[in-house]
Design brief:
Number of helices: 3
Distance between the termini: 6 Å
Radius of gyration: 23 Å
Helix content: over 70%
Structural class: mainly alpha
Order of helices and strands: HHH
Oligomer: single chain
């Protein structure tokens, strides 16, 4: 029973490592998008007089909105993967408890 439980733990650990890597990649993508958005906002704020004088506000607004939408997609993707990791962790505890109880 103990060996079976350890085998399940090892398999689960490997699966969660893979899922954790996916979550990390999603977090990096979200961070890159946030950095890009903040860079654009800083550029607009730094040159607000030029932007207003030349009528570039709508162009910058569209650009910032598209980057913010990309950032939101990355954040949502990260949340989905994180929920999958948490769900898998909860299910593994149940499976381990059942396996140990059934075998012993």
């Amino acid at each position: 029973a103990t060996l079976m439980a350890l085998g399940i733990c090892a398999f689960t650990y490997c699966c969660l490592q893979v899922l954790g890597g996916v979550v990390d990649r999603r977090n990096e993508q979200k961070s890159r998008s946030a950095d890009e958005r903040l860079k654009l906002l800083a550029e607009v704020l730094h040159g607000i007089k030029v932007v207003k004088a030349n009528g570039w506000a709508p162009r910058f607004e569209r650009c910032i909105q598209s980057v913010a939408a990309k950032e939101s997609r990355h954040m949502l993707s990260k949340k989905r993967w994180m929920s999958l990791v948490l769900l898998a962790t909860i299910e593994v505890v149940d499976v381990l408890a059942f396996a140990v109880t059934a075998v012993s």
